[in-house]
Structures are given as structure tokens and as C-alpha cells.
């Protein structure tokens, strides 16, 4: 049975016009195709202070400008701040974005929000950190974090050889995919497993320099003989170096890390970090923007995983292990 409605009066006609304008601006809240400035893309990073995410934002802004589209940005207050990312996704969905690029802070907790956005026709692409499960996003543009960890693990093993080691593992946060992948990659590259007696201390740092320093101090209290330190990223590595320097252990303890940021590569140059695995956040962001724009303009939606590359950077290369020098690292840091 058809429902009958009264003829619209002036107020209802005004309201209808407002709704029509809102839907037009939002692309009807779905993946409606468009061109030019009617395309808006969202970018949500873990924080807006970590240099890695600062560079990612710069890459997205530059590419959005080049493609003639609008970019909305947001970030968590700290690494692990899922609530702020959920709010950002809701705000961007309400604003009518065609796609959202996100670096998940809590890779499990964000999944329902990703599902809601995708149900509204929004193209959701994860950058750097895969959600858990990875299929919760339409696509992933990221470093192969397992490979990154493997590279620095192999480097450390190449240097240390068969010598006995006491290892400190300065990790990210419990259960976060990028941290788990890097941790496991390091162990794989070094040729050991969790629980190996050579691992004398494991601490979480949230990828933060101050927390990395505290974690290293705690590990040195537990075992002053630590001579190899794995760190989740370079801020944590520099925090660890500060603690080791205060303890007079910099000459006997090797630090390996991941990121390849400009500050991190300079730390390799200075001998504070022995080697780092360089990744490319600007490339991740630019490719993510390009993918959403191409789909919004009638192309094919990206799916699956796109590897954005990783290189081992060191000032002291090891035979049989491919690496790039500091000059390359500085020329390509955050590229």
C-alpha cells in the first residue's frame, strides 16, 4: 500500500532543499564517482607528533593538491588511542568522504568502525599497519614489516656471529600487528624464537623516546650485561641509547631499529644505531591518495596488499647482506 504525504509547505520545502544540498556535498554518503574538488579523502594517523606520521601527512597533502582533491586529516592523541580514531572516522563519514586512509592505533578495536565506513560505500585503505584481520580494510599500502624486522635481525646476527648475546626487546604495544610483525621478523632474522634464553628482557615502549629510555633503564637493572637491543622504531632506539650512554654501555651494546627517518639515519651515521630498516611513509600516503582518486573517478578499487618497499641502512655493511649506505638513507629518508 502506498503511503500518502501532505503537500510540502514552505518549511518542509526548505528542509528538503537543505537535505539535498547536504547529500550532494557528501556524495550521498557513498563511493559516488566524481571529479575534481568534489572528491574529499580522509587521512587518520596514530599521532600528529611522530615524524613518520608528519611525513605521511605531508605526502598525502601534496598528492591531494596535485590531484585537485580535498583532504581531511585527524590523528590520535597518542599511539594506541582508538577512541580518537573512531571519532575521526565518524566525522569523515558524515562529511561525505569518498575514501579514508588510516594507520590503525588499535588494530582489533578499529575493525567495527572500518566495517561501518565500508558499508556506506567508503573506500577504506590501511597505511603502514594492517588491521586485524587485514581483510577489514579494502586494501593495505605498507612496508612488509616482517621483512623489515628480518633485515635488522640478519644484520645483528651477521655482526655478532656465534658470540653469546644478551638481548633486550623494546617492543610497541601488546597485540598491535605492526609491532608483532617486526618483533617476529627480528627473531626470524637472528635465528631464534620467543623464549630463547638469550632474550633477557622485553619491554613495551609505545614507540616513544621517553618510554624507550625508561624501558632500557628497566632492562639494564634486570641485566647490566645486555649487549644487543632490538627497538620497534628510532624514537625508542634513541631513548635506549640515552639510557645506555648514562650507564656507560654504548661501546659494548649494539642497537638495531626500523623506520629510516632522517633523524634515525643521522643516528646511524653517528654510530648510535648500528642499522635500521628504512620504510617510505610519503610513498604509502601518495599511493593511497592516488588509489582512492582513481576509483572515485571511475577506476577500479584497490584490493589486497601493496608493498611500498624497505631497505637496510647501515654505515658498516656486512658481506652477503644487501644494504644501502648513509648517503642513500639521508637522500631517501621518509621518501
Automatic annotation (TrEMBL):
Keyword annotations from UniProtKB, A to Z: Signal
Positions of the Periplasmic binding protein domain: 41-299
Domain of life per record: Bacteria
Record's signal peptide: 1-25
PROSITE patterns: PROKAR_LIPOPROTEIN (PS51257)
Molecular-function GO term, any one: carbohydrate binding
Location in or out of the cell: Cell envelope
Stored InterPro entries: Peripla_BP_I (IPR028082), SBP_2_dom (IPR025997)
GO cellular component, one term: cell envelope
Pfam families: Peripla_BP_4
Primary localisation category: other
Family in the record: Belongs to the bacterial solute-binding protein 2 family.
Protein name: Sugar ABC transporter substrate-binding protein
Source organism: Actinoallomurus iriomotensis
